[in-house]
Amino acid sequence: MAATPTEAEVKAPALSRAYGPTGAASAIEHISIPKPSDYLRLNDERAYHAAILRSLRAAGVKFLRYTILDAFNTIRCKAVPLQHAMASLPSRTQSKAGASVSPLDNPVSIAEVCFAGLPTHADVPVPSSNLSARNVLTLRPDFSSLRVLPYAPRTAMIMCTAHNQRTKELSPLCTRGLLERVLCTARERLGVEFSVGAELEFQLYHSELKDGTPQPVDATTFANSSTLNQLEDFISTLHDQLGEQDIPIELIHAESGAGQMEIVINYSSNAMGLADDVVLARETVTSVAKKYGMRALFLPKTSMVMAGNGLHLHFSFKSVGSSSSNAFPDPQQSSGISKKGGSFIEGILVHLPSLLSFTLPTNNSFRRMGPGCWTGSAVGWSTEDKEVPIRVCLDLSTGEASNVEFKLSDATANIYLEMAMILAAGMEGMVNEMELRSMVTDDTREPLPQTLQESIELLKKNESLLSVLGPELSQAYVAVRETESKIEKSLEEEVTDAFNKA
């Protein structure tokens, strides 16, 4: 007599009953797979990361350098051997369910104090920064920034954001993360996306001292052909290595100072990518200069009788979803600038004295500023005037306003932080529909701070900019910059220090 199915067998909807030769009931589960039209492959980041690692290995890369820029413009990084990361990949016989987390997710941590509590001259925490070595932050890589370094070809560098080790939240001390948040706010609240360009100036010195003093490689003047002829090998290699990192260069020329050059990085609608390019370009210039027996100095002022080294930034914007690539100009306005563009400039002008704490962040930075220095020394704007801090630039083809240049910036600034603060100031002007003041004249000049300490004092009273920074970064940044502002050095000592670190 055949066995009667059990109650459990009757209730099991996914099972069907079959009866073998002995008459015993057996349950067979039918496998149901999705139809081709319903199938969607899971987005497994571990698989992508594995492909990245294997591609890097095939390219001869041995080390993956996880990199951040601290609040005071010091590059801090740790190198993970690629072999170690590869060993963490799931094996061919290991199921995805049993695989560990991706070997590229947060393999590196750095002490919290390193992000905003250490001055540029020493790894000694500033007590009033309220930061210590008790906590660490993990580094989360941004794979859009991954580059193999042509001057260190066995190494790939990747820029990271810093996160709380326990909660995984973005750290308020992360300046790259701050720029991300500002750009996100621009898109979501204002409906605009920013484009940015950069002009990076530096001076080249012979590696060997003469009578104990660093010597520039030449003494030519602005846009002089002698520099391009003499340094063609250096320029060619620099151009090639920047190109290998997808950093497009628009222009290269001699500047006014001895041994001074400028590279113009292409205007980009990817503001974060432009900031990464500035960091990578600075590293590349330094490395290529060493290859040719020179040292590259980005020190803002190396001589009081010569032009200084700046990092001029250009800004424009477009409306999200618009077919127009630039909403900054408006030929119908008397200024040639759209109302929103005028409000952006006015927001920057309102906060300019405090913004210098971020864009001219060292005592040496203020040596570069003054009448006749082509930087501007008073609050104001004008069109195509190189003696004002905020300069509206005209398109060479159409003659229309194309972007606004922020001239009071140099390469001692953290590019993520200064861009975040400049954009936030301009966005405040947009949100409040501020009306752009008239162009600056001799009768309307409002002097700017003459020292770093003066600018910091104004920042401490600027609730708007401090709120953008947040309390943790505000306290640490002000504390460290105040400490640095009290260190007195002669210009000669500053040049020597920069030369020794180059």
What does this structure look like?
The chain is α+β, with helices and mostly antiparallel strands and 502 residues long. The chain is 34% helix and 21% strand. The protein has 15 helices and 18 strands. It has helices at 7-11, 45-58, 82-87, 113-116, 175-190, 225-230, 232-244, 271-291, 339-359, 363-367, 415-431, 452-459, 463-469, 471-485, 491-501; strands spanning 15-19, 25-29, 63-69, 75-81, 109-111, 136-141, 147-148, 155-164, 192-206, 249-254, 260-268, 294-297, 311-319, 378-379, 381-383, 390-394, 401-406, 446-447. Strands 9, 10, 11, 12, 13, 15, 16 and 17 form an 8-stranded mixed beta sheet that branches. Strands 3, 4, 5, 6, 7 and 8 form a 6-stranded mixed beta sheet that branches. It has a two-stranded antiparallel ribbon with strand order 1-2. Helix 7 crosses helix 8 (271-291). The N and C termini lie far apart (94 Å). Mean pLDDT is 90; it is low at 7-19 and 92-100.
Strand content: 15-25%
Tally of DSSP β-strands? 18
Overall morphology: globular
Which residues sit in consecutive blocks of at least 5 with pLDDT less than 50? 7-19, 92-100
Please state the average pLDDT score: 90
Structural class: alpha+beta
Percent helix: 25-40%
Helix count, DSSP H or I runs of 4 or more residues: 15
The separation of the N and C termini measures 94 Å
Strand count, sense and barrel status of the largest sheet are:
8 strands, mixed
Q: Nearest-angstrom radius of gyration?
A: 28 Å
